[in-house]
Design a protein that fits this description.
By secondary structure, the chain is an alpha/beta fold. It has 16 helices and 16 strands. Helix 13 links the parallel strand 12 and strand 13 (423-426). The longest helix has 70 residues, at 38-107. The radius of gyration is 36 Å and the shape is elongated.
């Protein structure tokens, strides 16, 4: 191993040394030695030329190697810079996610938990701990049966084979919290698969409901051994004259029943003008709650995924628009009022929806500019042609258009060049961090500058604190929406 290493070290010096030696011999032979034969002189010259060519070849090879190494170094430097950038982005995203997860953990109204296949708890939220009256250490890593009551554990115990076999189970049972309060728990057990399709754990979600509002057939231990069947239609209950499904799951027929029977409530959230010279509108976003949960209302996150799954979002949007217009026609609403409705991608694709809106406007005789349809940026980007058609047709009726969750990127800017809108709702993930993150602040400033250029008003989403409101006012944002401005409330409070 030493000989090759030594040879590699001296190899670059062999040709130059040989050339110098031959040149020295030529000089001595020509000038200091008489009678040297021409053959020796010619041989020395030939050897010198060969040595020079070898030197040139080595120099060219070294130059090529240097160029190659320089390119590799530049590429490695760029890759390292990108990796550092992505790492910083990942750390930022992780930090933001932790903040949002904490908000969800502390405020989500349902009991959430995750268990591995051994039924040891690996995650639970604040509501879950509150139900049992325990702290984190008493639940984390523990078996469910060690901290839950027997009736509570029985729900999982009876269906654990089905859950670990990959089935999603819906169920209901009457349970008591640690404080002794009785609730009907709408239970959902969802298996968690790895990338090979193997179940590695399961999620549990419990939605409490008042027992007076929902009677459930139970066994003596209050745990019905009935698995959900999403194909079972709704049936009438002659005892309380209320309609309910014969199972505890959210099925297509259940959604249809809820829409047909009007089992939804309209809520609204105020959008407040914060810019001093902003045009004075009374703005509200229309929200929806389903009549079946704690306080007899279910938040949208608990039922909208099922509405979307069964392809009924367009039908539900029509219900919302129809009942909102009906309410507006029955009450004296200021001409400066605007009520916005978030429409789904299925509604955007529905070519009959603009005609439906036109018919409802004619029937209720309310001003079309009172209505604003909110389109999610992601839906618009995935369906640009349908979104352009939808926006043009509804604006022709006199309605307004808002582009929601707007982020500052190339796709967003291209979208604004194609679709004419009245409002841009700045993505709440940017607004959330403007006091902490210079990059997010710069994006909000850029979005507001673009809006001013195209004469569109801006609405900041997810405004949570007075400090953020003050900063948004300094930036010249027109409106703000979020819990820091106003919480959702029933539409009837506007009466």
């Amino acid at each position: 191993m030493q000989k090759p290493a030594f040879f590699s070290t001296i190899k670059p010096y062999i040709s130059p040394s040989l050339a110098v030696l031959i040149m020295t011999l030529l000089i001595i032979a020509i000038h200091f030695i008489d009678g040297v034969e021409l053959e020796w002189i010619a041989g020395l010259w030939g050897t010198l030329i060969i040595s020079i060519f070898i030197m040139i070849s080595q120099i060219a090879q070294a130059s090529s190697q240097i160029t190659s190494n320089t390119k590799q170094l530049t590429t490695s430097k760029e890759r390292l810079a990108n990796e550092i950038k992505h790492r910083l982005w990942a750390e930022k995203s992780t930090s933001e996610s932790k903040i949002r997860l904490q908000v969800v953990d502390e405020n989500f109204p349902t009991l959430l938990a995750y268990f591995n296949v051994e039924q040891r708890c690996r995650y639970h939220n604040h509501t879950y701990r509150k139900w049992f009256g325990l702290n984190t250490n008493q639940i984390d890593g523990q078996f469910l049966h060690t901290f839950a009551s027997e009736p509570f554990y029985a729900s999982v115990k009876n269906y654990i084979k089905d859950i670990l076999a990959g089935e999603t189970v819906f169920h209901e049972s009457l349970q008591k919290s640690a404080k002794g309060q009785s609730f009907v728990l709408a239970e959902q057990f969802i298996p968690h698969f790895d990338n090979k399709g193997k179940v590695i754990g399961f999620y549990t979600q419990y939605t409490p409901r008042s027992p007076e509002k929902c009677k459930v057939a139970t066994t003596q231990n209050n745990t019905p051994n009935v698995k959900s069947d999403t194909n079972t239609p709704a049936i009438a209950n002659n005892n309380n004259q209320t309609k309910q499904t014969s199972n505890s799951g959210v099925s297509a027929s259940r959604i249809v029943q809820a829409i047909d029977d009007g089992e939804f409530s309209l809520y609204c959230q105020k959008i407040m003008p914060i810019k001093t010279d902003a045009e004075s509108y009374e703005m509200y976003e229309i929200l929806i709650r389903m009549a079946e949960e704690e306080s007899n209302l279910m938040p949208p996150g608990a039922f909208l995924p099922f509405v979307e799954k069964y392809k009924m979002m367009s039908r539900l949007d029509c219900w919302v628009v129809s009942h909102m217009m009906q309410w507006l026609s029955a009450h004296k609403i200021s001409s400066k009022s605007i009520f916005s409705v978030n429409v789904s991608k299925d509604t955007i694709k529905n070519t009959n929806f603009p005609k439906f809106v036109q018919e409802r406007l004619q029937k209720t005789k309310i001003a079309a500019n009172t209505i604003c349809f909110e389109i999610e940026e992601s839906d618009a980007l995935s369906n640009p042609a349908e979104t352009l058609r939808f926006a043009e047709q509804t604006r022709l009726l006199g309605c307004r258009i808002a582009l929601c969750s707007f982020n500052h990127n190339r796709d967003s800017l291209d979208l604004l060049r194609k679709i004419k809108v009245d409002f841009i709702k700045i993505d709440g993930s940017l607004v959330w961090n403007i006091l902490k993150d210079e990059e997010d602040l710069a994006k909000v400033v850029a979005i507001n500058r673009i809006a001013r250029t195209i004469k569109v008003q801006t609405i900041a989403e997810l405004v949570e604190t007075d400090d953020i409101i003050i900063k948004l006012r300094e930036l010249g944002i027109d409106f703000a929406q979020g819990f820091g401005v106003a919480r959702p409330q029933p539409l009837k409070v506007l009466e």
